[in-house]
C-alpha cells in the first residue's frame, strides 16, 4: 500500500463514478419540477467549492486523512468524538446507498429476489475489492469509467434516435419562480450527491502527487455535473415533469420508452448495468472512508483489515434502517439530506477551515 | 501443483451456476404471454373486468402455422376475470390460465366504451406501478362494445388479432392521420393536470362478433366480423364525452402536430372534391399569448404535399393553378382545424394541450387561470392559419380529360 499510490487519472474516474452513484438514476430535487437540470448546474458550483475546501485542508496537512487533520485542527479531545461522528456517518451513508441500489434493482427487475441477497452480493464484492486495497479499486475504476461512458453514450443515442424527446416538457424555465430552483439546488442536490465528495478526504492522502488532486477533482466534478444535468433533462423531456417526479427510477422508464423501428427496444439492461457499476464504486468509496476513519481512530495498521467487519455492519444496517421504501425515503429526505449531509459535509468542514485559518494567522503573527 | 489448479476451476464452475442471477427463473413454457388486455366494468357490482388475449405459441410457431393445417387450434385464447382492483382481477383470472400471466410483451390496452364513459381517471395506476407493463403500450377504446368482445375477434392477414389491431392503428395514423397512437405515459400526462385533456382512438367492431370468435372468420374472403380503427374519443376529466370523426378528427391531429401523411381532397374548378393531394410533411406550431388579459392561441399549420389525382381538366403546368390549389388546400386545413376546435370548445375540453402551451409561454398568467381553465378554454380565441405548398404533380403534368367547356 505504501509503495503503490493513486494517479490523478484514477482519482478522476473514481470521482466521476462516485458522483454518478445512484443520483444519476434517482429523481433528485424535484421541488424544481422541470428545472431540475438548472438546479444541478447551480449546485455544481457549490460542489466544486466544497471540493476545493477538502483539497485545501488536505494540502495543509499532507499525508493525513480526514480523521487525522480533524484531530490536528480541533485537538484530540474535541477531534476524537468528531471523528467518531464521521465514522458513524460514513457507515450510515454507505448503508443508504446500498439499500437504495437494492430497492431500485428489486422494484425494476429482480422482483422476487430477497433484498438481503442482492445487498449481500453487492457488499461482498465491494469487500473483496477493498481488501485488495484502495489502489486496486482505483485501477478498476479506470476500466469501468470507459464501460459507463460507452453505456451512457449508447443509451443517450438510442433515446435521441427514437424521437421520444419532447423539449417542450422542459418549459417553462423556472415556472414557479427561481426560489424552488435554488431550494432544490442548495437544499437537496448540493448535499446529495455533490457534498458527499468528503469521502475523498480519506483517499486524497493516497495520491501519488499531492498537487494533481485539485485539478483532477474539479474537472471530474464538472464533467459529472454536466452529464447528470443532461441526463435528468433528458429524463424530463421524455417522461414529463409529472411522471419524472413520481417515479422511483426515471432513467429506467426513459430507456424503456426506446423503440427504434420495432426492432431496437427493451434496452433496460443498459440502465441496470450503469446503476450496478456506479453504485458499486459509491458503496466501495463510502466503505473505504469508514474503514479509513476507523483504522486511524483505533490505531489499526491498515484500513484493509477492517473491510470485512465494517462491510458486514453496513450490510446489516442497510437491512435494518427502514421497514419499507417509504420510511427509507422519508428518513432519507428529512434526516439524511436535511441534517446529516449538511452537518458532516458542509458545516463541519467549513468550521474546520475557519479554525484552521484562524490558527494559521495566529501562528503567522507569533512567528513574526 | 495440480490441486491448486483444480480447486479454483471447480469454484469457477460453481460461480457459473450462480452468476446468471435467476432467483425466480420462469421458463418460456410456463408463461402465458399477454398481447392485449381489455378493461371493462361489471355494471352491477362496479368491479373491474379484465380480459387477456394470450398467445398460443404452438399454433403461431414458424413452419407449422403457415399451412394453417387442420387440427391446430386458434392462435390466441381470451381469458377474463373480475375484481375490485385491476390487480385483483388479474390474479383472479390466473385461476383459469394454466400458466403464469406475463405482461412484458403487451402491446395494446383496450377500454370498453361503457367504461370509458364512466371515467378512466384512476385506471392507470397499475400500469404505472407494474414493472412488467411498459410505457410503450398503446391504448384504444372499443366503440359501442365492451373490450372483451372486440378482443375475441379473429383477424385476417395477421395470425394474432392484437398484432392486427396494432398494425391497423399504426398504419392508420401514418397514412391516414385520423387516429393516433396514445401510449400509457402520454395518457397519464393528459390526466394529471388541467392543461391537457385525454383523447384516444377508437376501434369499431363490424359484423357479427359471435362469428368473429371462430377461426372460420379468417377463412372468408370477406370476413363476417372485422374491426376498424375509427374516430377519436374526446374525454373530459377522464370521461369519454363524444367521438370526433373523419375530417374533424384530422383537425385534432393537425393541431397536435401528429399528421404524418394523409390525403386531402379539394375542389377543382367547380367540381367538389375533385383533386386528391397527398400530404407528405406537415408541421404545426401553437403559440399561446395573452391579449388584454385573455388567452389567445395561434395555430399555424405548414404542410407540403403532392398532387396524386385530378378529376378535372386543369392546367397544372401553370404557376397560378398551383397557387390557387395551395390556397384551396390551406382553406381546407383551416376548416378542419376550426371544426375540431369548435367541438372541443363546445365540450369545454382542452384536448389540444393549449393550457400546457400557455404554461410554457406565460407561466404567471397560467397559474391564475388554471383552476377555471376548462371554462376559459371554452371561450378563448383561437386563430388558425395554414400555409400549404404543393410541390409536384406526379408522372404527368396536364390531365388527359378534356375540358367540357373552355374557360
The fold-level CATH name of chain A is: Amino acid/polyamine transporter I
Mean pLDDT of chain B: 84
Rg value of chain B: 26 Å
Tell me roughly what share of residues is in helical segments of chain B: 25-40%
CATH superfamily of chain A: Amino acid/polyamine transporter I
Mean pLDDT of chain A: 88
Q: What is the tally of helical segments of chain A?
A: 13
The quaternary organization reads as heterodimer
Structural class of chain A: mainly alpha
Strand order of the largest sheet of chain A: 1-2
The general outline of chain B is globular
Order of helices and strands of chain A: HHHHHHHHHHEEHHH
Query: Biggest β-sheet of chain B, characterized?
Result: 10 strands, mixed
Number of domains of chain B: 2
Task: Give the terminus-to-terminus CA distance of chain B.
Answer: 105 Å
Which CATH architecture of chain A is right?
A: Up-down Bundle
Number of strands of chain B: 14
- One letter per element, helices H and strands E, the order of chain B comes to HEEHHEHEEHHEHHEHEHEEHEEEHHHHE
Sheet having the most strands of chain A: 2 strands, antiparallel
Secondary structure blueprint with pairings:
The complex is a heterodimer of chains A (368) and B (407).
Chain A: H1 8-20, H2 36-60, H3 66-74, H4 76-108, H5 115-131, H6 134-161, H7 178-189, H8 212-239, H9 241-246, H10 250-256, E1 259-260, E2 264-265, H11 268-297, H12 307-320, H13 325-367
Antiparallel strand pairs in A: 1-2
Helix pairs in contact in A: 1-6, 1-8, 1-11, 2-7, 2-8, 2-13, 3-4, 4-5, 4-11, 4-12, 4-13, 5-11, 5-12, 6-11, 8-10, 10-11, 11-12
Chain B: H1 2-18, E1 31-41, E2 48-55, H2 57-60, H3 64-67, E3 76-83, H4 86-94, E4 100-102, E5 108-112, H5 113-118, H6 125-129, E6 138-143, H7 147-151, H8 161-176, E7 182-183, H9 184-192, E8 199-207, H10 209-212, E9 225-236, E10 239-244, H11 246-255, E11 262-268, E12 271-291, E13 294-310, H12 319-346, H13 354-361, H14 363-369, H15 373-379, E14 381-390
Parallel strand pairs in B: 1-4, 1-5, 5-6, 6-8, 13-14
Antiparallel strand pairs in B: 1-2, 2-3, 6-7, 8-9, 9-10, 11-12, 12-13
Transmembrane segments (chain A): 12-30, 36-57, 69-93, 113-131, 143-165, 185-204, 216-244, 270-294, 306-323, 335-358
InterPro entries (chain A): Spore_GerAB (IPR004761)
Pfam families (chain A): Spore_permease (PF03845)
Amino acid at each position: 500500500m505504501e509503495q503503490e499510490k493513486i494517479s490523478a487519472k484514477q482519482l478522476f474516474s473514481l470521482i466521476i463514478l462516485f458522483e454518478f452513484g445512484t443520483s444519476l438514476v434517482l429523481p433528485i430535487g424535484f421541488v424544481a419540477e422541470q428545472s431540475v437540470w438548472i438546479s444541478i448546474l447551480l449546485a455544481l458550483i457549490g460542489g466544486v467549492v466544497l471540493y476545493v475546501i477538502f483539497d485545501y485542508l488536505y494540502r495543509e496537512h499532507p499525508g493525513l486523512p480526514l480523521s487525522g487533520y480533524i484531530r490536528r485542527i480541533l485537538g484530540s479531545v474535541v477531534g476524537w468524538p468528531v471523528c467518531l461522528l464521521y465514522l458513524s456517518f460514513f457507515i450510515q451513508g454507505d448503508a443508504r446507498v446500498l439499500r437504495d441500489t437494492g430497492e431500485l434493482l428489486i422494484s425494476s427487475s429482480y422482483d422476487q429476489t430477497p433484498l438481503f441477497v442482492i445487498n449481500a452480493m453487492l457488499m461482498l464484492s465491494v469487500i473483496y475489492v477493498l481488501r485488495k486495497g484502495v489502489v486496486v479499486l482505483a485501477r478498476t475504476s479506470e476500466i469501468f469509467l470507459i464501460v459507463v461512458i460507452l453505456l451512457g453514450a449508447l443509451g443517450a443515442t438510442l433515446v435521441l434516435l427514437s424521437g421520444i424527446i419532447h423539449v417542450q416538457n422542459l418549459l417553462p424555465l423556472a415556472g414557479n419562480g427561481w426560489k424552488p430552483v435554488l431550494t432544490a439546488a442548495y437544499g437537496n442536490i448540493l448535499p446529495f450527491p455533490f457534498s458527499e465528495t468528503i469521502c475523498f478526504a480519506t483517499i486524497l492522502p493516497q495520491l501519488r502527487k499531492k498537487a494533481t488532486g485539485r485539478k483532477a477533482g474539479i474537472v471530474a466534478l464538472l464533467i459529472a455535473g454536466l452529464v447528470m444535468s443532461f441526463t435528468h433533462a433528458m429524463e424530463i423531456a421524455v417522461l414529463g415533469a409529472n411522471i419524472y417526479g413520481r417515479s422511483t427510477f426515471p432513467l429506467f422508464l426513459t430507456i424503456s420508452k426506446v423503440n427504434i423501428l420495432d426492432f431496437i427496444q427493451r434496452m433496460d439492461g443498459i440502465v441496470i448495468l450503469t446503476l450496478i457499476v456506479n453504485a458499486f464504486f459509491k458503496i466501495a468509496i463510502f466503505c473505504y472512508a469508514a474503514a479509513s476513519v476507523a483504522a486511524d481512530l483505533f490505531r489499526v495498521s491498515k484500513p484493509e483489515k477492517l473491510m470485512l467487519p465494517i462491510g458486514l455492519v453496513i450490510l446489516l444496517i442497510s437491512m435494518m434502517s427502514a421497514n419499507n421504501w417509504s420510511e427509507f425515503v422519508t428518513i432519507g429526505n428529512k434526516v439524511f439530506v436535511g441534517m446529516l449531509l449538511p452537518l458532516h459535509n458542509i458545516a463541519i468542514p467549513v468550521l474546520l477551515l475557519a479554525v484552521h485559518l484562524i490558527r494559521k494567522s495566529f501562528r503567522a503573527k507569533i512567528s513574526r | 501443483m495440480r490441486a491448486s489448479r483444480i480447486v479454483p476451476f471447480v469454484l469457477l464452475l460453481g460461480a457459473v451456476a450462480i452468476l446468471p442471477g435467476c432467483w425466480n427463473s420462469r421458463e418460456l413454457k410456463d408463461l402465458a404471454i399477454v398481447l392485449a388486455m381489455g378493461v371493462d366494468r361489471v355494471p352491477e357490482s362496479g368491479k373491474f373486468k379484465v380480459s387477456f388475449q394470450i398467445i398460443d405459441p404452438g399454433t403461431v410457431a414458424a413452419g407449422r402455422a403457415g399451412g394453417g393445417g387442420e387440427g391446430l387450434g386458434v392462435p390466441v385464447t381470451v381469458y377474463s376475470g373480475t375484481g375490485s382492483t385491476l390487480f385483483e382481477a388479474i390474479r383472479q383470472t390466473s385461476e383459469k390460465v394454466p400458466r403464469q400471466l406475463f405482461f412484458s410483451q403487451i402491446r395494446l390496452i383496450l377500454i370498453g366504451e361503457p367504461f370509458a364513459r364512466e371515467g378512466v381517471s384512476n385506471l392507470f395506476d397499475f400500469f404505472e406501478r407494474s414493472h412488467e407493463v411498459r410505457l410503450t403500450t398503446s391504448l384504444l377504446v372499443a366503440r359501442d362494445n365492451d373490450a372483451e368482445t372486440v378482443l375475441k375477434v379473429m383477424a385476417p392477414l395477421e395470425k394474432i388479432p392484437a398484432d392486427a389491431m396494432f398494425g391497423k392503428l399504426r398504419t392508420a395514423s401514418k397514412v391516414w392521420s385520423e387516429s393516433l397512437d396514445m401510449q400509457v405515459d402520454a395518457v397519464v400526462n393528459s390526466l394529471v393536470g388541467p392543461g391537457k385533456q385525454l383523447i384516444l382512438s377508437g376501434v369499431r367492431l363490424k359484423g357479427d362478433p359471435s362469428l368473429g370468435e371462430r377461426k372460420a372468420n379468417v377463412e372468408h374472403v370477406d370476413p363476417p366480423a372485422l374491426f376498424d380503427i375509427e374516430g377519436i374519443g374526446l374525454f373530459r376529466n377522464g370521461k369519454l364525452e363524444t367521438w370526433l370523426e373523419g375530417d374533424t378528427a384530422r383537425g385534432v391531429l393537425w393541431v397536435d402536430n401528429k399528421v404524418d401523411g394523409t390525403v386531402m381532397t379539394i375542389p377543382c374548378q367547380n367540381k367538389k372534391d375533385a383533386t386528391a393531394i397527398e400530404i407528405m410533411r406537415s408541421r404545426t406550431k401553437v403559440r399561446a399569448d395573452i391579449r388584454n388579459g385573455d388567452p389567445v392561441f395561434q395555430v399555424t399549420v405548414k404542410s407540403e404535399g403532392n398532387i396524386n389525382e385530378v378529376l378535372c381538366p386543369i392546367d397544372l403546368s401553370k404557376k397560378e393553378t398551383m397557387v390557387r390549389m395551395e390556397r384551396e388546400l390551406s382553406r381546407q386545413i383551416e376548416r378542419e382545424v376550426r371544426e375540431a376546435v369548435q367541438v372541443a370548445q363546445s365540450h369545454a375540453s382542452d384536448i389540444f394541450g393549449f393550457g400546457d402551451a400557455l404554461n410554457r409561454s406565460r407561466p404567471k398568467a397560467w397559474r391564475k387561470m388554471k383552476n377555471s381553465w376548462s371554462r376559459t378554454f371554452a371561450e378563448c380565441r383561437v386563430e388558425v392559419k395554414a400555409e400549404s405548398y404543393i410541390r409536384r404533380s406526379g408522372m404527368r403534368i396536364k390531365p388527359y380529360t378534356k375540358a367540357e367547356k373552355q374557360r
